[in-house]
Specification:
Blueprint lengths: L25 H10 L10 H11 L6 E6 L4 H14 L4 E4 L11 E3 L2 E2 L2 H15 L6 H14 L5 E5 L16 E4 L7 H4 L3 H8 L9 E3 L6 H10 L3 E3 L5 E5 L2 E5 L4 E4 L8 H15 L8 H10 L7 E3 L4 E5 L4 H13 L6 E5 L7 H8 L5 E5 L9 H10 L6 E4 L2 H11 L5 E5 L2 H13 L1
Parallel strand pairs: 1-5, 1-6, 2-5, 6-7, 7-8, 13-17, 14-15, 14-17, 15-16
Antiparallel strand pairs: 2-3, 3-4, 9-10, 10-11, 12-13
């Protein structure tokens, strides 16, 4: 498909009408998108595929790398983006959810696109969708691809929002399918076992298209789907591996690299994510060759907000969006490996439909004081509900309750001394609210 096929004319007034005409702001559009479909999540490809057909015709795009998984997707996308940028390619990256502003989801050359660019894309999607109802994520995915289509890119990196098989990004065929990890999350949509969830993630596989798996114990459902499709299978500890060293780390695979710099993003788990990214680039090296220098530079520069993010100064202040046991265990490992001489205060807020008990169990040995923050958002857990989770695990001392993350953060800052550490964790909502308060303060 030629780029011209994507260049639909701007309409003077959007079919949305009212505030969603030519003068509608990005904020106006996002409010509208939240109201377009009766369900926040409505898995299935029929509706979004129909609108994609109208927008893109035969949907011919540059090289696409699709990244699924329970945890590690955002970091893996960041490593891929950074390495490819250092290799000189034009890169578009679509990730979710955002932390502070929606624009974070759609990046070109590592830079979030402007409000005007997003609004223009939303208008075009609205023009062609007709009576087809789209969810917030589906609408945003189509808008992102429309923006990428107009940007003369060499490669597009797509992060799966939920699952894989029925996720909106799966409308677009991939040149390499990546699965970072499999763990229990979103069980109401994806199933209650790793095998069931693996089968959903494997939905992004395509016949004869390489697969990269970053899970060291992948469910059989992943392997079986790869076998059925005759896809080249590349898995950590099988076709590639990595070794941490005191002064760097080594990647061993089709191409091997020794003495690589540790990533700028803290945590040993980031070495696995980086290895997955390197293995992915090896799979598409015939289309996108990347030299070792670009890999090394990309490792240093890759960064994702809210993944063991630290603010300068004392006490140490860490922000991590870990919201399931797998992510919390990775955070706990980082906290253990990077100790402080004082206490660790946790500003903790979660969504009620997440495994709150599992996250608390993963973090309890690394936390001295819990400051529980209620989340006043749909599905948000209240502070009393969080307290009950701690009480059920016998955590009764050094626990305080607050109705909002910003209030818990303020209290932590007043209580903590310079040798202490404050960790904000549990949800994107929690981290976003505290980061906003911290940056404003």
């Amino acid at each position: 498909m030629s780029v011209d096929a994507c260049l639909l004319p701007d309409t003077p007034e959007s079919p949305c009408g009212g505030r969603h005409g030519k003068d509608a702001s990005l904020a106006d559009w996002l409010i509208r998108l939240e109201q377009l479909h009766p369900k926040t999540i409505d898995l299935g490809l029929a509706r979004v595929a129909e609108v994609a057909r109208r927008l893109f015709g035969n949907m011919h795009f540059p090289c696409i790398l699709t990244v699924a998984g329970t945890n590690g997707k955002g970091s893996t996308c960041a490593f891929l983006e950074s390495m490819l940028l250092h290799a000189g390619y034009r890169v578009g990256t679509y990730t979710s959810p955002h932390l502070m502003v929606y624009n974070e989801r759609v990046r070109i050359q590592g830079v979030p696109v402007t409000d005007d660019v997003l609004v223009s894309a939303f208008r075009k999607v609205e023009t062609v969708r007709g009576d087809v109802s789209l969810t917030y994520f589906e609408y945003g995915t189509l808008a992102a691809m429309l923006i990428f289509c107009q940007a003369a890119l060499d490669v597009i990196i797509l992060e799966v929002g939920l699952g894989g098989r029925l996720d909106a990004v799966n409308v677009f065929d991939t040149d390499c399918a990546v699965v970072t990890s499999i763990d229990l999350d979103h069980t109401e949509y994806l199933g209650t076992t790793r095998e069931a969830i693996g089968a959903e993630k494997a939905g992004i596989f395509r016949s004869s298209v390489p697969v990269v798996c970053g899970d060291s114990a992948p469910p059989a459902s992943l392997r079986e789907r790869a076998r059925q499709l005759a896809t080249p299978w590349h898995a950590v500890e099988e076709t590639f591996t990595w070794h941490d060293q005191a002064d760097g780390w080594d990647f061993i695979g089709v191409s091997s690299y020794y003495g690589l710099p540790h990533p700028g993003m803290a945590g040993r788990h980031q070495l696995n994510n980086a290895a997955v990214a390197i293995a992915t680039l090896a799979c598409v090296r015939h289309k996108l060759p990347v030299h070792e220098t670009a890999i090394r530079q990309g490792l240093r520069d890759a960064w994702v907000a809210g993944r063991y993010q630290r603010l300068p100064g004392k006490p140490e202040r860490v922000f991590d969006v870990a919201h399931n046991p797998h992510g919390a265990r990775a955070l706990a490992d980082s906290l253990h490996r990077l100790p402080v001489s004082g206490k660790t205060f946790a500003v903790f807020g979660m969504l009620a439909d997440k495994d709150m008990a599992g996250v608390v169990a993963a973090l309890r040995d690394e936390v001295d004081v819990w400051l529980l923050a209620g989340l006043d958002v749909p599905r948000g857990a209240g502070e009393v509900q969080l307290e009950a989770v701690l009480l059920a695990q016998g955590i009764t001392k050094h626990v305080a309750l607050y109705p909002h993350p910003a209030l818990a953060w303020q209290a932590a800052c007043e209580l903590a001394h310079e040798n202490d550490r404050i960790v904000t964790v549990g949800s994107f909502y929690t981290v976003a609210a505290v980061l906003q308060s911290a940056l404003e303060g």
